[in-house]
Amino acid sequence: MYNKAMLIYNGSAGSNDIKASLAEAVEGLESYINELTLMKTLKKGDAETFCLERASQFDLIIIMGGDGTVHECVNGLIKLKESPPIFILPTGTCNDFARSLNIPLKIDAACEAFEETKMIQSDIGTVNSRAFSNFFGVGLITKASEGTNADLKQSIGKFSYFVSALQSMQQAAPFSYTLKTKEGIENDEAVMILAMNGHSLGTTSLYHEKSSLTDGLLDIYLIREAGLSLLKNLFNKVTSPTFPDEMEGIDYIQTSSFELEIKRKEEVDIDGEIYLETPAIVRIDQKTLPFLSFPIYQ
């Protein structure tokens, strides 16, 4: 039982959907919380501000939204001396970090299973002083995110990301990069570089047998070329219960930190939000924030 909880929700979503989701959440969680405060975001940055300025007054933080709302909240909570436990009620398009925490993707199911949650101290990544819970990416991933039509996203949801990705692949050009890790320096070319803390991207599972939200390591994917080769590898990953030992055109490493330099500036995508550029200094901080989870992989 929690005494006081703050529920942060995205006020810019459709009003009917929000009202129904809120009613469902309040009804589903009322037996676990004595006092529930609702906080509606009206613009970018509100969720981060709510967490930074008010989270320490509560015993539980509930984030009702998608990956963007989670991203904002994480950037507020990470600045606190100590964060309250965090529970995600996924209402976004992909809900990738919620998937990594194995949270049911329907509000009623997540609330019904609430008493079964276990708290884990999840790793959190940082890039150039900004935090990310799920992933860091450059290259093809930013083109896919930027190319996602808002109306298409609203009407067909997660499939819009795959449509956009396929369109971006046709125009993907490799870039030259320098990657510095504790293990050494690599100079090469790629069309996309991903650093994953979570296990899901665009609803596609990228879970690797070595992956963990609590090990202090990032899973780095260096994608050398796009087109049919990348599609084949993604198909093999999605249809396989385990990660292929080798994937043509994709290298996999694990590291706790790295520096990335690219000859021409590239936009950076963190948790689906694009507002940073390379060069990038990236690290993972082990067991940083407490999330309520249904652990399978940890």
From TrEMBL:
Coiled coil: none
One Gene Ontology term from the biological process aspect of the record: phospholipid biosynthetic process
The keyword ATP-binding appears for this protein: yes
Entry keyword Kinase: yes
GO molecular function annotation: ATP binding; ATP-dependent diacylglycerol kinase activity
Cofactor(s) in the UniProt record: Mg(2+)
GO cellular component, one term: plasma membrane
Signal peptide: none
Keyword terms of this UniProt record: ATP-binding, Kinase, Lipid biosynthesis, Lipid metabolism, Nucleotide-binding, Phospholipid biosynthesis, Phospholipid metabolism, Transferase
Domain DAGKc: start-end pairs: 1-131
Domain of life: Bacteria
Family: Belongs to the diacylglycerol/lipid kinase family.
PANTHER family named in the record: LIPID KINASE BMRU-RELATED, SPHINGOSINE KINASE
Protein name: DAGKc domain-containing protein
Annotated source species: Alkalihalophilus marmarensis DSM 21297
Taxon lineage: Bacteria, Bacillati, Bacillota, Bacilli, Bacillales
